[in-house]
User: Which sequence fits this backbone?
């Protein structure tokens, strides 16, 4: 197993904007098993936990979680995750998710493409802007 610091956490709904979850601290563990399982534990205040509960209310299927690992400037890693449990403490809540790493490169390309389409680009202009953004590593 390998353990890393969880720097940032977002819940990524199927439709709509990602929801930033402010965390106090967190760990992400690659179990290095055949199932390619990761454990994501985030310590947050009660208000942020209420946001998580609201987003996941009644959700039995998996959902997408975006995590930044180790350093703020690292590229986000996307996980197909399930809510496992929450342990409430005096002032904080420890939330545990279990997930599988998704294809980051594809996820980032899809987000970039969505942004460019939302900007109204299409055809040759869309292709050109997409290629330029991929080369520069930036999202428009």
Assistant:
């Amino acid at each position: 197993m390998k353990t890393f610091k969880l720097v940032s956490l977002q819940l990524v709904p199927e439709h709509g904007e990602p929801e930033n979850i402010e965390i106090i601290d967190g760990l992400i563990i690659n179990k290095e098993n055949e199932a390619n399982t990761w454990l994501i534990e985030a310590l947050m205040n009660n208000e942020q936990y209420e946001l998580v509960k609201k987003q996941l209310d009644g959700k039995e299927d998996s959902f997408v979680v975006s995590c930044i690992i180790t350093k703020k400037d690292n590229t986000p890693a996307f996980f197909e995750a399930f809510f496992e449990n929450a342990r409430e403490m005096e002032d904080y809540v420890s939330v545990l998710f279990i997930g599988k790493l998704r294809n980051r490169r594809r996820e980032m390309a899809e987000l970039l493409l969505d942004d460019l389409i939302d900007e109204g680009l299409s055809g040759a202009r869309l292709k050109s802007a997409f290629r330029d953004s991929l080369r520069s590593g930036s999202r428009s």
The chain has a mean pLDDT of 89. Helices lie at 46-56, 104-118, 123-136. The first helix runs from residue 46 to 56. The chain is about 30% helix and 40% strand.
